[in-house]
Amino acid sequence: MAVYPTKRLRRLRYSPIVRDMICETIVTKKDFIYPLFVVPGKNIKKEVKSMPGNYHMSVDEIVRECKEIQSLGIPAIILFGIPEYKDEVGSGAYDPNGVIQQAIKAIKKEVKDLLVITDVCLCEYTSHGHCGVLKGEEVLNDETVELLVKEAVSHAEAGADIIAPSDMMDGRIGAIRKALDQKGFYKTPILSYAAKYASGYYGPFREAAESTPAFGDRKSHQMDPGNSNEAMREIEDDIEEGADIIMVKPAGPYLDIIYRAKQKFGLPTAAYQVSGEFAMIKAAGKNGCIDEERVMMESLTAIKRAGADMILTYFAKDAAKYLDKTRK
Ligand code: PBG
Ligand code: ZN
Fold first, then answer.
1. pLDDT digits (tens, 9 = 90+) for 76-132
2. Is 234 a member of any domain?
3. How far apart are CA 94 and CA 120, in angstroms?
4. Which of 1, 21, 143, 261 has a CA that sits 20 to 30 A from residue 232's CA?
């Protein structure tokens, strides 16, 4: 084995052309899934304060936005709904005429070749902001799974291409897979939020989705940030129950989990660069502390380098525009 001075690792770094040729990780637009928030009404496009460039949009505006997303070369979106009404059991989530169901139908009808993924959880739809049915202050597991199944099926019936359960109840992937198959949706993949942490980085999203829990937290179902072995068990369970794609969330602070999951399971792996990760980069960029575009691309590259095949990111549009500008 050669050593210095024969071996010089800098040799491959002097020329930008060589640097480009040996680059191991290249983020492309095809990696992106863009999150969108749908609200009832018409002609509504209202910016989420802590998430510059992201909006609450009514169905008509969402369709317009989806056309733009598609024309930018972004292949997929994930939809979150803020319903007309909220109740104890999140009925708006599985209402065949709910806001998400309407949005799916409209997008599928008017925008060609855009992959529509839907987030399946109840916290946006419950009056108490918890991810499931409550008994006292406890989020009940099996009763919640029954409602998640209804929600997933209603998304598939409306035309969703991929179903993404984000609730972290036990057994929900198996139950949803079974119900989808029974209803004939055996071709609809499940993207499971398999390792989802109880994270402070969801702050801006909860403002956007109006889903802050009225009391308590989500620690009885989302994972402890200190745990990695447990993430592998969660992912393994979801795969056994029928998940087609697994997700780690958040992304940037959990690169070790992404890496480990990809190495261990080799399944298509998604990572969610969440609202707080986005908001921090935006805010620091705005304050002049960092170069926003550069850190945006670096954060996405790091997530991909760790092993993510696809990235859910609020930067999807900005990054797509940046790539158009900088890459031949
Ligand atoms: C719903 C859900 C959350 C996010 C995606 N789906 C929030 C939560 O668990 O409170 C977070 C996304 C983000 O912060 O960008 N369970
Ligand atoms: Zn939830």
1. 999 999 999 999 999 999 999 999 999 999 999 999 899 999 999 999 999 999 999
2. yes
3. 10
4. 143
Counting as low any pLDDT under 50, the low residues of the chain are none
**Which residue range(s) make up the domain with 134?**
21-326
Rounded CA separation 166/163 (Å): 10
Centre of ligand 2 to C-alpha 258, Å, is: 21
Closest alpha carbon to 213 in 86, 109, 30: 86
- Burial level of 235, CB count in 10 A (0-12/13-18/19+)? buried
Q: Which two tokens stand for residue 223?
A: 């994972």
From 50, 82, 202, mutation site for ligand 1 pocket: most ligand atoms within 8 A of C-beta: 202
The reported pTM is 0.97
Residue nearest to atom 8 of ligand 1 (CA): 202
Residue 166 CB–ligand 1 contact under 6 Å: yes
How far is Cα 235 from Cα 238, in angstroms, rounded to an integer?
5
**Helix ranges (DSSP H) in 133-291:** 141-158, 172-182, 203-209, 229-241, 255-265, 275-286
